[in-house]
Amino acid sequence: MDLQSRNDTIREHGKATRERRSGMLCRVYSVKAVHSKMNGEQKEFVNALFREAKWFRNAYLADPSAVNDKTKSVSVKVGDRFEVRELTVLGSHIRQSVIGEVKENIRDLARSQKKGSKVGPLRFKSVCNCVNLKQPNVTYRMRTDQSSIRVQGCRKPFKVRGLEQIPDGAETANCRMVRKASGLYFHITCYVPKEEKVVPHRSVGIDFGIGDNLVFSDGSEPVNICVPESKGTKLASRRMNKAYSRNGNRKSRNHDKRKNKLRKAYEKDSNRRKDLANKTVHEILANYDLIAIQDEMIHNWHSGLFGRQVQHSAMGVIKAELKNSSSVHVVERGFPSTQICPVCGGLTKHPLKERTYTCRHCGYHHPSRDVKAAQSILDEAIRKYRLSGTESEESCGGQTLCGREDTIVSAVRSLPVKQEARSFMSG
Ligand SMILES: [Zn+2]
Predict the structure, then answer these.
(1) Which helix (H) or strand (E) holds 78?
(2) Which DSSP state fits 261?
(3) Residues in the chain where the model's pLDDT stays below 50
(4) How far is the CA of 80 from the centre of ligand 1 (A)?
(5) What's the predicted TM-score (pTM) here?
(6) From the CA of 369, how far away is ligand 1's center (Å)?
């Protein structure tokens, strides 16, 4: 087979795969390698893999013309000198994906520079904790019946826990091998057939806040997610600080141990937060088919008066996850959801301690300002989608609404919007 026809076959296969997967759901399943079942050879293999991936990435970044996916040895900076190191376990597939990743990073930087943000150069890495095993059955192979994953270049397969999450009939794509403080993980990307979900025809606006994290416009119970630092995290961080004031920046084996303990504690806290966030998002998406939120900069709240409270809540994660859904519509940041009156449209400023809403133009009163804000967000979202079918992309979280117009209009009709609010919207 000559090169031309081979390339054509590859291209056609790729096209067919993309078409097939466009009708499927993309899911990522995480499984954890069982540390006690790893032998010395495997541990050394994992360390070598991440080490060589780091060397290769840095070498490619230093001189892209000298390094390609067939390179067998790279020069590594040791102190002030350079030494040549052999790549023993890094396969060509992984090298290709390392190169791809660097290129993608550079493209991302260029994109954000175009948007006007300040960007620096891509930096060298001192540690690499993630490699991409991109081809199933070549760079990695799953054995569900033996709960193991074989990685190219390592003789013994890794025993893992959690493979039973992957449904039958799922099509596996790439797998990322990730080293965390708590152990080694495989994040396996799968394509699973879409299942038809029955979501009730209801709509809701959600207001993010500091007192009550999530307030719903239909007056249902506000959701509060606060996972403060656990006792273990506090202890680990105190020990770390104490040792730091005693020893300064001196590196030692005990320093590494303490650092690892702290990393593990943080990981545990963030896992608990993520778990709660996932459950909340699932609950919301299963109960409403039209959801409106405001594009608030929750990240900026971290530095505010209630920064710690915001950091321990999972609002950022929830917002990011909601934005990915096609039934969520985002109202832009500048919309005065707290001030606007749903009856006359006038603006009234309320200090933070004032928990009710009273319009100073028409006297409209609502017992809860947060619920009123959530309703205003919902009204604004509905108004926008009714007035213009071709929405600008950033205002609705990057989704175009053209395909959803019918469903939105029918949802709007079935909405229990107040009569005054309706006349305000159309007027
Ligand atoms: Zn008013």
Answers:
(1) strand 73-78
(2) H
(3) 387-427
(4) 70
(5) 0.73
(6) 13
